[in-house]
Amino acid sequence: MNKKVAFYTLGCKLNYSETSTIGRLFNKAGFDTVDFTDAPDVYVINTCSVTDNADKKCRRVVKEALKISPNAYITIVGCYAQLKPKEISEIEGVDMVLGAAEKFNIVEHITDLTKKPKALVLNGPVSEVNEFVASYSVGDRTRTFLKVQDGCDYSCTFCTIPLARGSSRSDTIEAVVQQAREVALSGVKEIVLTGVNLGDFGIRDGKREDKFFDLVKALDEVEGINRIRISSIEPNLLTDEIIEFVAQSKIFVPHFHIPLQSGSDKILGLMRRRYRRDLYVDRVAKIKQLMPHCCIGVDVIVGFPGETREDFIDTYNFLNDLDISYLHVFTYSERENTIAAELPGTVPGSTRAERSKMLHILSDKKRRAFYETQLGADAEILFETDIKDGYMHGFTRNYVKVKTKYDPVLVREIKHAHLTAISFDGDVEITEMQETLVH
Fold first, then answer.
1. For position 125, what pLDDT does the model report?
2. Band (140; pLDDT cuts 50, 70, 90)
3. What is the dihedral of CA 217, 222, 225, 227, to 10 degrees?
4. Fewer CB atoms inside 10 A, N or C side of the chain?
5. Domain-terminating residue out of 231, 253, 275
């Protein structure tokens, strides 16, 4: 009987793509992948360490795993494992901790599932993490997360990712296109391009070989994929040529997620971001000029050291005036070995929470206002696998979340429908669904 392995992923889309790839390595080695609650022989927990809360989540997942399968062999990989290997190794029940250079060799390291008194730690310096390992998710989601870039050469003062993932590096355009073709053959209808600093695609062996725009053009020619979505791209790397190309593409969808982090030029300077708010305004204006229906998501951090009430109100008003669609709000948390952790002007936790709440409310207002502009339109919807209270959900090309009564025939299929109203829970209701599926 084959050994069983279960996975739990914390953090970003990039982590999901890597977990899926690690899962295929286990399958090739003869393991059966099972659900978290199916008492597996091995647990693999892929961690994030963007915030302090992510670290706490890792501990909770380990504790829950041991409740389900007390004798399971528990391995921790991911950013937290690279940054805090000793801390993780001391968590009760953890058997192995693999750093960034070793996580894709995990099967080779699991030779004995006997739990030992002390965890095995394999973790080298991040400077040794210079190989790009291709990854993509298949089979566990409606869409595939395709990793095309890893690492980051930026030096934002709040961020630990360069310390956890190393310098910027990428796959070749030819390899990415081949992976996209493989995904198309699997029947997946949407690819989400992922990376730590996606717009910096094209660096190999420390040298720039290509540009992200070159990759976009090449992927636009791949047959069998209905949609390609750009997950997140820095405003200074989102060029006019990329925006103009997406505007006329039949495959790349009108949806951009563009990190801002602060609407205050003073705070952007303290963060060492590579742009100021005028550039962000220009990028939003360019997108809306060519794609008025485009969905624009924004990352923003509240409570950064030195952020006064006036700075926050400046950010709030800036976001309120922007033609954007939703916010991802992050409450600043101090991270070891970052410049920001040593900056003066610490913002009290209660103030951070208050500012976060204000921006979450603003995000809800922005999303509803964007959805209202889409009512009355006919849209192409890709339906998900989730079911809640007899309803299922899907997303339009421009990332409007819709709901309809559950129908198993619709799962992972694309249909055209009329967007009619916004429901009490904020999703969009649809009518006049066409009978012909889009393949």
1. 85
2. low
3. 0
4. N
5. 253
When mean pLDDT is compared across 51-55, 72-76, 242-246, 378-382, the lowest value belongs to 51-55
Is residue 295 within 8 A of residue 337, CB to CB? The reply is: no
If asked whether residues 280 and 303 sit together in one domain, one would say: yes
Sheet of 295-302, strands arranged across: 255-261, 295-302, 326-331
**What does the CA dihedral 345, 346, 350, 356 come to, rounded to 10 degrees?**
80
Q: pLDDT per residue over 273-312, tens digit each?
A: 999 999 999 999 999 999 999 999 999 999 999 999 999 9
- Residue 294 contacts residue 252 (beta carbons within 8 Å): no
Q: Are residues 342 and 389 in the same domain?
A: no
Q: Are residues 63 and 114 in the same domain?
A: yes
Q: Are residues 157 and 218 in the same domain?
A: yes
Please give the residue range of the domain that contains residue 115: 4-125
What are the residue ranges of helices labelled H in 90-172? 106-109, 161-165
- pLDDT of 200 reads 97
The residue among 227, 253, 279 that closes a domain is 253
Residue 118, burial from CB neighbour count under 10 angstroms (0-12, 13-18, 19+): exposed
Q: What are the start-end ranges of the E strands in 289-425?
A: 295-302, 326-331, 378-388, 391-396, 401-405, 414-422
What is the pTM assigned to this prediction?
0.92
The span from the first CA to the last CA of the chain, in angstroms, equals 39
